[in-house]
Every structure is written in C-alpha cells, then in structure tokens.
DNA sequence: ATCGTCCCTGAATTGTTGTTCATTTCTTAA
DNA sequence: TTAAGAAATGAACAACAATTCAGGGACGAT
C-alpha cells in the first residue's frame, strides 16, 4: 500500500467531524431543529452535502449525537452545581435553578432538544436526554427525602413533573416574553424554583431561603454560553 | 339555475365534514398525530383523498380544527368541574385533577395535541390550545390568591408550570408505565395534584384534604371517553 | 327524461429532503 | 514523479406525502 492515514490527516478528519456537529448546533440554536438539514449544515461547515455521510451514517445519527452531547454537558453542569451545595436540599435547589438558567440561556436550543417537532428516528436520543435529567433530579429528591428534609414521595413522578414545569414555563411557546430583562428573568427563575421546592414538600419559609441562596445574585454569563460553547472548526 | 343545495344535501355535506374530523381524531388517538395523513383519514372516512380538499383547504387547517375542537371540549370539561367546586381552592384542585384525568384518558391524543412532532403550520392552533388551558388555570390561581387562600404570585408563570408538570409526568414519554392499573393511576393523579397545590402555596395538610376531595374515588369511565367522543359518520 | 350544476374520484403532479455514487481532487509512499 | 488508495464533490436519485385536476357520477329543477 502506498497510502496511510497520517496523524495530520486524522486530525483534520476529527476536526471536520467536530465542525459538522458545531454547524448543526449553531443552526439549531439559531433557527431550531427543523432547520438542521443536511444541505445547510454542510454549507455552514463548508463542505459538500455528500461529505456529511462520510462522518455520519444518517441525519438521524448526526442529530442524535448532537442531542447527546448537549445533554451530557447540561447534566454535568447540573451535577456540578448540586454537588457544590452544602446539603441535600440545597443541592436540589441548586439543580433546579441550574436547569432553569441553562434552559433560559439557550431557549431555542433547549426547545429544539426537548420538544420541537423532529424526525421520529431521534426520539430515542431525546428520550434518553430527558430520562437522564429526570433521573438526576429524582436522585436528589430521594436523597433529600432520605435525609428527612422532604416528605416521602414517588420521586420518579415528582421529578418528571418538576422538569416539565420548568420547561413549560421557560422554554415553551407560552414562556413570558420579557426574558431579555435580567431582572425579570431572575424573578421568573426564583418563582419557579420556589414553586418547585414547595411542590416537593419544602415548607414555604425554608424554600424561600434556599431559593435566594441557590439563584446566583446576578446572571452575568447569560449571553455567553453557560451550557456549552459551539466549537468552530 | 337548475340546481340548488337542498336540505338533505347540506345535511350530508355536514355529516361528511364531521366524518372527516372524526376519522382524523380516531387516527390520532390510535396512532398519533404523525399518522394523520390525508390518505388514511380519507380511507377511514370512506371517501377519496381529493374529497378532503372540498371540506378543508389544507391538511394544516384540518388538524388545526381538530385541535381546536378537542381543546374546547377539554376546557369545557375543566370549567365545569371547577365551577362545581365549593370554593376557589377546591375549584383549582378540581381543575387540576380534571386535566390530569383527561390527559390520562386519552394519552396518545393528548400527546399528539400537546407535544408530538407535527407540521409547522399548526403551531398556532396548538399554541392557542395551550394558552387557553393555561389561562383557565391562571384565573383560578388568581381567584384563590385574591380570596386569600394562596400567597400572591405570578399566576401566569405558575399556571404554565403547573400545566407543564402535569403533562410531562402523565402524557410525556417518561410517564410511568403502569397506567392500566386504576389504582396506580389514581395514585399518580393524587401525587401530582398534591404537588401542584403545594407548589402554588397551599399548606400541606390542607392540600391533602383538597386532593382527596377533588379526585373522584374511582375512575370508572376511563376506557370510555371523559374528554370527548369520536363521532362516527 | 334531461340538462345544468355541483360533487366525488384517484391517478398524476409537485415539492421537499435525505441519500447515493460516478467522478474529481488530494494524500502518501515508493 | 507517479501510482494506489482515500476523501470530497455535487448532481442525480428515491421516497414520501400534500395537493391538483380532468373526467365520471349524482342531484335538483324543468
């Protein structure tokens, strides 16, 4: 054989793969999941449409991997915030506010990943994504309940409900229209976090304290990317 | 002119229109919104595909009308249940449990109307549907707050969150898998209703009482159609 | 009965996207 | 420099579903 993949080529191939995923992510963030089509993504990555198929077997695989990536990043973020909290209840509060702020920071992306009309072949990826975040919340609720900070409950159901509440109120089509204003935004996050904690059984006064503690005083890095940075080739 | 639409013809036309909507509804209930395509619906209504276009200008219009119909019925149902309650808080509890039970009674339909991947031209109808139900809950929350039964709050946000919680936990892809068992089902509804009431600020003990009162002791007519009966031609 | 009008039919058309593949362009080792 | 193999290209293809329309049938008035 007179040809072998050299290191440089492999690097270039890997970079191109990342570029495709990045192009897909940018497209989704700007125009929604429906706009993530092979031709536009390829154009954005500055390659031909056919080339995409040298890196991903199908569009569904591409989108699935995109969703998995974003989901993993979000989960890491939530875990990190929760683990840094002093106790189980604070951890739950931190997890809730982190989910809320992440969702608000990338509303279109979050909407695309969670709920936007999408190809049937990616439902699995989306489902895994939801399952993962619900499982995280569920374990936090269960931990707090074990510690005696919450009444006993079916954490699987309440965790799912909690996630649904956050998403519906923040990224759904009926979310308030004034998320640009940081003050309003902060208020919304607080309202929802308070509601979530009350919902799982935290007494009102204590919930208020936890929320005040958990929501960052300002939300500075909203315009940047708390959830994940699109990587450019 | 040698032809005029007689009464009988107009009745037949109207019946056929209803048959198309009914066929669409049945299809959606059985196989999801994605399966609501012109050809299958027409076949079910026992007419040719082209005939559908004599009654509806487009598939989007057909589905929009279907969603509006179902939404209106659901809203009526919820209003009725809430209005029959003795007070504002009971009304809220009744509204919540009614929504939950309706959703469970027609999970596939509810999922299709609320969240399933769907054509972009029907987002308006779906949005109106959500807005309507959220507005209803919002007004109930506001009424209860005005009466001093709930702490002051941004009812718009909490209402949206509440709806999201119910839907995510009951009709979403992560809903528990044992909805066949009426006991489990009842338990799930109670759990969620309790959580919802706590979330908007009802004290735990009182919330429990309201929930027990609001959830019908049995859920007998689940297999029939609490939400709306598909009309056959 | 029959004519004018409307209604129904369903095969063909249209439009949109994901996917393929023959060809071209690059890359490597001899 | 060159030949073998890999990667990239992008126009053509395929699949699917909404929509159209020319022709046939049904209906109402005369």
Overall residue-averaged pLDDT value of chain A: 87
Classify the oligomer.
homodimer
H and E string of chain A: HHHHHHHHHH
Helix content of chain A: 55-70%
Number of helices of chain A: 10
Pick out its properties.
10 helices; 68% helix; mainly alpha; homodimer; DNA-binding; 233 residues
3D architecture notes:
- The structure is a homodimer of 233-residue chains.
- The first copy, chain A, is mostly helical and 233 residues long.
- In chain A, 68% of the residues lie in helices and 0% in strands.
- The first copy, chain A, is built from 10 helices and no strands.
- In chain A, helix 1 (7-31) packs across helix 6 (107-114), helix 4 (59-83) packs parallel to helix 7 and helix 5 (88-105) runs antiparallel to helix 7 (123-146).
- Chain A is elongated.
- The model of chain A is unreliable at 218-233 (pLDDT under 50).
- The structure holds a DNA duplex (30 and 30 nucleotides).
Provide a quick synopsis of the model.
With 233 residues, chain A is mainly alpha-helical.
Write the layout of secondary structure elements.
The structure is a homodimer of 233-residue chains.
Chain A: H1 7-31, H2 38-45, H3 49-52, H4 59-83, H5 88-105, H6 107-114, H7 123-146, H8 155-170, H9 182-200, H10 204-214
Helix pairs in contact in A: 1-2, 1-6, 4-5, 4-7, 5-6, 5-7, 5-8, 5-9, 5-10, 7-8, 8-9, 9-10
Chain B binds a DNA duplex (30 and 30 nucleotides) through α1 and α3.
């Amino acid at each position: 054989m007179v040809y072998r993949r050299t290191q440089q080529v492999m690097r270039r191939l890997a970079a191109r793969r990342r570029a495709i995923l990045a192009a897909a992510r940018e497209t989704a963030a700007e125009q929604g999941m429906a706009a993530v089509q092979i031709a536009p993504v390829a154009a954005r990555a500055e390659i031909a449409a056919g080339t995409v198929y040298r890196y991903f077997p199908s569009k569904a695989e591409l989108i699935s991997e995109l969703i998995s990536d974003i989901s993993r990043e979000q989960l890491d973020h939530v875990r990190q915030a929760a683990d840094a909290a002093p106790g189980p209840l604070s951890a739950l509060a931190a997890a809730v506010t982190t989910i809320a702020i992440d969702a608000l920071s990338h509303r279109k992306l979050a909407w695309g990943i969670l709920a936007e009309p999408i190809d049937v072949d990616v439902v699995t990826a989306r489902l895994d994504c939801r399952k993962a975040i619900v499982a995280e919340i569920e374990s936090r609720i269960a931990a707090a309940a074990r510690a005696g900070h919450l009444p006993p409950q079916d954490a699987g159901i309440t965790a799912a409900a909690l996630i649904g509440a956050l998403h519906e109120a923040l990224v759904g089509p009926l979310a308030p229209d004034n998320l640009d204003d940081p003050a309003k935004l902060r208020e919304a996050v607080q309202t929802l976090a308070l509601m979530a904690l009350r919902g799982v059984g935290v007494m009102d006064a204590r919930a208020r304290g936890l929320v005040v503690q958990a929501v960052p005083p300002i939300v500075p890095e909203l315009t940047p990317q708390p959830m994940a940075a699109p990587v450019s080739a």
